[in-house]
Known about the structure:
mainly alpha; 2 domains; 2 strands; about 75% helix; transmembrane helix
Amino acid sequence: MKQRMECKKTMVAKVRSVLSKQKSFFRKIYSFEIPDSKEFDETVCNKIRQTEKLTIFFQAVRNGVNQSDSVGVNTFGFRRFSWKDWLISISCFISVIRCGILGKNTNESVAIYLGDPLFRVKDGHVLLLWISVAILVTYSFREWLLVLEAKGKFKVLSVWNICCNGFNPVDLQMNKLNTKRFRFTIYLVSLTIYWVMLIIPLFCTLGSLSLVLTNPLMYRNPKLAFLALLWAPTLSLSLTVVFSAIIGFGWYIMCSLYFHLYRLRDQIDCADILLNNSKHGLFAEKDIQLFCSKVIQNLNNLEEASHKLRYVLLWYFSVLSSAFDFDLFIGTIIRVYNSLLCNFATTAGFSVLISVGIFGHIFGSFITQLGRLTIRLHQLSCKNKLSMQSVSKVLEIMDRAAGPYNGIKIGDLLTLEKRFFVSFILENISILMLFTVNIGPYFESYKSSA
């Protein structure tokens, strides 16, 4: 009997050890933990510096993360141009004028000398006019951003520049968990933007060359092929710069807003700690007064950032959504040029629209977080006897949280909320339907007449 009992015990021990090993194995595979080490901290800081250098190289900004409110414009309100600015401006103007002329041109000699990559291609004028308009609009937006930066309007984007030297919870005014989450979020955003900005020149170069090389008439007319290849670098440079500027500046906006979002989440955690202390009789009124002062200060910083960036975000949401709706239109409805270009336009349009919608969904959580903060303050004020000074601060925060000035503003039109993603997708579907109904018949009649 003793031997049987010992055998059973050894069998149970073996089974438990095997199950524990399998459990630890599956935990390693399927569990996800936020990295926390000095090496990872240095990796994130290096990635921030690398992404910042790319944005400066592509002239998305000129001062990087270290924005200031000092004015760098002349008496006429114009910023000082560098040799990169002149090169970018000249190439963009050449591309806009060239594509605009080719989009309306019917003379073959003019098309040959301007190196028309879509020579005698059905619907080619649509694509050329679209490229001309896209470069003009994005270049104007880039110039507007650089002028605002030279006027010192983007100091709100440097609120997170303390992260360039490390993620210290004391400097960030967050607890360790929120600091780790914020650091990992910044790493993911920076890594994504870094690689996208590296890939953009390759895609723009291949795109401008593919327009030339996939046209069969290029192989019958050597002069046209030579001039088209000669003009191609100007077009690829223009597209690379304007698209990189849009994506690079979006990186500064996202990182700044993430900083405010994680600070707000940290304040909710602080409110939970105060609630827990009050349950155990460890409540001190000085703590809630200090807490309310920090909340008011952070709300003021968020309101300032939202106010100064509202028209920039309006451009991102309105112009980008309309532009990539048109990409979906020419890629799925009218099928311009060839299937390769149509598939690329469809993929780009769908990806950008989904990304913009996700951006709105994430930062729409500001309103939700403020609602949670209001609930915590209400619980604190009900469970504890507060002085008039503390009550006035609590009521001020509640009034600010319920007011119309909170959250991320899109111009003067609306505030980002959680349900924005659904409404954004529905609005873009309706815009695509408007393109199809109003512009689609024009292309059908043009194809039938051709």
